[in-house]
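User: I'm putting together notes for a lab meeting next week and I want to include a structural view of one of the chains we've been expressing. I don't have a solved structure, so I'd like a prediction I can at least talk through. The sequence is below, exactly as it appears in our construct file.
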Amino acid sequence: MIEGLLIGGGLIVSGLMLELSVGPVDWDAFRWPVNGIVLAGFLALIATIFLLRKKVYGFQFIGTYKAAIPALAYAVVLTVVMGLTRQTVNGVWLNNMLSFWPFVLIYVYIAVILGLVVLSKVRRLLKQQDHSLTSCLSPLTSVLNHLGLFLAITTATLGNADMQRLKMITVKGEPEWRALTPQQEIVEMPIAIELKEFVMETYDDGSPKRFASDIQILTQTGKNIETTVEVNKPVEVDGWKIYQYGYDTQMGAMSQTSILELVSDPWLPLVYTGIYMMLAGAVCMFLFGSRKKTAKSKIENR
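Assistant: Thanks for the context. Below is the predicted structure for the 302-residue chain, given as C-alpha cells.
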C-alpha cells in the first residue's frame, strides 16, 4: 500500500510540475486522428506492460490491488474537489479539473491498472479447463465490469477533443447554416436550419410553461426534415443533436428568433458501449451471486 501511495503521490507532484511548466492539458491538440493514434499507443503500452510483468517488478505491481486501492483513493479525493469547486471552460488549476495535470495523470494510471486487470482476467478465463457456463460466468462478469469501465474512461477522455457544442441563432423564414463556438467563432455547418414557427405556452402569470421551435432541416446528403425541437426533446440528424436553447426574451411568445444548441460527440457510442457492458456485468453478478448463494444454502441445510 505504501508503494501505491508513493506512486500516486509521485503522479500528483509530476502533474503539478507539468501544470507550472506547460500549463493545463490542451485537449484540442488531441482531435482526430491524434486521439485515435494515442489510443492505439496506449493499448500497445498496456499490452507491453502485461507481457513484461514477470520480468519487471514495477509492471507486476501495477496490476495488483495494492496499486489500485491508493490510485482510487487519490481519484476520489480529486473528484470530490472537482465537485466542490466551480468548473469553467477557461478556468485554471482546480477550476478546470478535466485539464488539470494531476487529475488527468491519476485517471490515466487507473486506466492502465484496469487494462492490466482485464488482460489478466481474460488470460485466466482462456486457460480455464472447465468451460461450462456456470464456471465461466463469474470471471466473464468481472471482465465485463472492468472492460466496460476501461472503455468508458478512455473513450470519454479522448473523445472529449472531438465533441462540438455550438449555438445557432435562427430567424423565422431565413435558413441558417452558421453557428457559434463558445469562443464566439463562426463555423459553417453541414446542415441548414430554417425556423418555421416559434411556439410558447405560458402560465397564468405569463411565465413560460413550454417553448419549442418548428423547424426545417436541410442536409448535405439531401435530407429535408420538418420537425419540432423543444426543451429536453432534441432531434438527431447526421450525428448532430439539436436542442432548444433559448429565444428572444423581450418578445416572449411573439419571438421571431430561436436559439438552438447543436452537439456532436462521435465517441459517445463507445462510451455507451462501456456503460452497457458494466450494466450487463452487474446483472450477471446479481443473477450469478443469487444462484450461488442459493446453492450454498441448500448444501449447508443438508
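A couple of points you could mention at the meeting. The first helix runs from residue 2 to 22. The two ends are 42 Å apart (CA to CA).

User: Perfect, that's what I needed.
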